Structure formats: structure tokens, C-alpha cells
């Protein structure tokens, strides 16, 4: 287990440990809460506990000062003891657990962290001395809003006043970053940098319900038909083990007369995220790439099941409202019956968003 720091002297200010130690999309939806902590108290030393997989993103987060790696629930006793010792040595003033599990609650209490705050759900809450009732299972608000509410509650418990909530992007990059990424990728892929680039991520990450590759191919064809002279270049992206699907989809689009390429494997998750900064729009299910793009405030079109725990509202991307679209099965359809989604209507809405994006870019 290792840790890293993004700067600052950890002994000069209160030290806060924030835990979101599951998947990429879940972690990206924690960034608004991290931004709120820093906006209210810039001197806070914010440390995050994350798994190795999401650590590259955590190290790039502008709201994070330090990263501690979580070996996971399946790690042996020695690894758990090492993590406990690391938390004790951290001398944290507070623990904010955005998704509580008994193991993390137990570690926080054993580490002697005096203020421990988490959602008031499940029996894991017994390890916390500050709890916030949210009833997330009702899915009445976006996940990132639930996280921000917990961050505000932590600030109040520390005697600090929450600040006005930051606006997107929650992953602000210098203006030149997207331009530089576009130039590099344009050269690497041999594609025109002046045309719209629509990224298409057909993978599911092993969890999200998604459209089939055939549905994505039909959607791309419908969007291309509506594009006129502004026909996009389609960039297929893939997660680990999804490369074959991306290649097959690219071949299908090319066979339909569309211009399409596959984004080659990047040098780690951080490099992949930077490649998303060059997108004019990203289309995907509710997966990590969709939420990375949302944090970057790139335009997104997400496809969601109608299941209450996975609705478009609950797992809404955290980009600007004008830059996000969401589609799910209609009322009365089976909750995971993605075949009932009206692809023609989705294509029209996505085409309009791409067109508005191009018009705004040409005017700037």
C-alpha cells in the first residue's frame, strides 16, 4: 500500500479522509463533494481512500491533496492491519464515507478518527458518530448531490460554513489541454481535427445495463444521416476486455459508410481520461467513461435502464445541464428492456446537441 500527495503541508490544516472506494463512475461522482470541501475551506487537507484502479484519477483530481490505497475487503489480515496503521498515522480530524461498509466504519473507529460521518443506512452506521438520513434507494436526487449533502454536513460538524456550491466543470483543465489532446489524437489516428468527434463507448464495465452493439450502430447511422455537411468522426473507446467489441462496432460503422476509428489503448486510466477531453460528445451507458466526461463538462448522452436504483436522475452526469442527455425505456416497459428506447428520437436530440456544440465553437 502506498500513498502520494498533490502538494501542501498536511500538518498545517485539518486533515479529512474521504472514502469512495468502489468503481470509476462512483468515484467521479464524488468530485463535486470534494470540490465543495475545498471551496468552503481551501486549507483543508483532503485525503482520499481509493482502490488501486481509480488511484490514477485521484492523483489528477485538483481537490485532492493525498491518496491512500485501499487493498480491498478481500485482502488478508496483514494488509488490513497495515491500512489501519496508516490511518492511525494520518491523524485525521474527520472521516467522510460516501458509501459506507462495515469494514471502513470499523477501520475509522479503530483508527481513532474523532469525527466520523456517513449516510444513515445499514448496520455499518453503528461505527459512525455523525449520520445523515438520505434514503438513497428512493433515487429522488442525483448521486453527486447526495455526496455534496454529506460534504456540507461534514463541514457543519467541523464548525465550518458550507460555501456556495461550485459549478461544472468539477475537473477543470487549462483551455489548451483539449486542443493539445485533439492535435495529438488527430495525428495518431489520422483523422480531421476540424470535424465533430463523437466518442462511442459500447462497453458496460461489467455492471451497467447498456444498448447492444447493434443498437449503437443503428444510433450512429441515424445521427450521421442528420448531420449533413457536419458529419462526425466516430471514435470507439473500450475498457479492459472490451477491445474486440469496439473493433467489431467500428467495422460495422465503416461498412455502413461512416468514418470510424478505434481509440488505441492508452497509457493508463489517467491518459484515457485526457483523451476524453478531446471529445465533442460521448455516448455510453452509465459507465466510468460517461462520468469522467461529465466531470470534464464534455457533452454526454447516457443510456440508462428504468430500474429505480439506476435511473437517469440517480446516476445523472455532473456536467452542465445544457450538455447532458439521458435516455431510458418508456413507462410501462420492462426496467432493463433497452430495446424499447426510441433510437430515432435519441438520434435527433443527440444531433441537435452536436450541432449546438459546433455552432458555439465556431462563434468563440
UniProtKB/TrEMBL annotation:
GO MF, one annotated term: ADP-heptose-lipopolysaccharide heptosyltransferase activity
Keyword tags: Glycosyltransferase, Transferase
InterPro entries reported in the protein's UniProt record: Glyco_trans_9 (IPR002201), LPS_LOS_Heptosyltrfase (IPR051199)
The protein's Enzyme Commission number: 2.-.-.-
GO cellular component: cytosol
Enzyme class: transferase
One record GO biological process: lipopolysaccharide core region biosynthetic process
PANTHER family on file: GLYCOSYLTRANSFERASE HI_0523-RELATED, TETRAACYLDISACCHARIDE 4'-KINASE-RELATED
Protein name: ADP-heptose--LPS heptosyltransferase 2
Gene: rfaF_1
Amino acid at each position: 500500500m502506498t500513498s502520494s500527495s498533490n502538494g501542501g503541508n498536511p500538518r498545517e490544516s485539518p486533515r479529512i479522509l474521504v472514502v469512495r472506494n468502489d468503481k470509476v463512475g462512483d468515484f467521479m461522482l464524488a468530485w463535486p463533494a470534494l470540490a465543495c470541501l475545498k471551496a468552503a475551506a481551501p486549507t483543508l487537507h483532503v485525503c482520499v481512500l481509493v482502490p488501486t484502479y481509480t488511484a490514477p484519477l485521484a492523483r489528477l483530481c485538483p481537490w485532492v491533496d493525498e491518496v491512500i490505497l485501499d487493498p480491498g475487503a478481500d485482502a488478508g489480515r496483514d494488509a488490513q492491519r497495515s491500512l489501519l496503521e496508516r490511518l492511525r498515522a494520518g491523524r485525521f480530524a474527520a472521516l467522510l464515507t460516501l458509501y459506507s461498509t462495515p469494514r471502513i466504519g470499523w477501520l475509522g473507529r479503530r483508527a481513532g478518527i474523532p469525527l466520523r460521518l456517513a449516510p444513515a443506512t445499514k448496520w455499518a452506521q453503528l461505527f459512525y458518530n455523525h449520520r445523515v438520513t438520505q434514503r438513497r434507494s428512493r433515487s429522488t436526487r442525483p448521486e453527486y448531490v447526495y455526496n455534496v449533502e454529506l460534504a456540507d454536513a461534514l463541514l457543519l460538524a467541523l464548525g465550518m460554513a458550507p460555501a456556495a456550491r461550485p459549478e461544472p466543470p468539477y475537473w477543470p483543465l487549462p483551455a489548451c489541454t483539449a486542443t493539445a489532446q485533439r492535435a495529438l489524437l488527430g495525428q495518431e489516428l489520422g483523422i480531421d481535427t476540424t470535424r465533430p468527434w463523437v466518442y462511442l463507448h459500447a462497453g458496460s464495465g461489467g455492471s451497467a445495463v447498456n444498448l447492444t452493439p447493434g443498437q449503437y450502430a443503428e444510433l450512429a447511422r441515424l445521427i450521421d444521416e442528420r448531420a449533413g455537411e457536419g458529419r462526425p468522426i466516430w471514435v470507439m473507446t473500450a475498457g479492459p476486455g472490451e477491445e474486440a467489441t469496439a473493433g467489431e462496432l467500428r467495422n460495422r460503422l465503416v461498412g455502413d459508410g461512416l468514418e470510424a476509428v478505434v481509440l488505441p489503448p492508452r497509457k493508463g486510466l489517467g491518459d484515457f481520461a485526457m483523451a476524453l477531453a478531446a471529445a465533442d460528445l460521448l455516448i455510453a451507458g452509465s459507465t466510468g467513461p460517461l462520468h469522467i466526461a461529465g466531470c470534464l463538462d464534455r457533452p454526454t448522452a447516457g443510456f440508462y435502464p428504468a430500474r429505480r436504483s439506476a435511473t437517469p436522475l440517480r446516476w445523472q452526469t455532473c456536467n452542465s445541464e445544457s450538455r447532458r442527455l439521458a435516455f431510458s425505456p418508456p413507462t410501462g416497459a420492462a426496467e432493463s428492456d433497452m430495446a424499447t428506447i426510441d433510437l430515432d428520437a435519441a438520434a435527433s436530440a443527440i444531433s441537435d446537441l452536436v450541432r449546438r456544440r459546433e455552432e458555439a465553437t465556431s462563434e468563440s
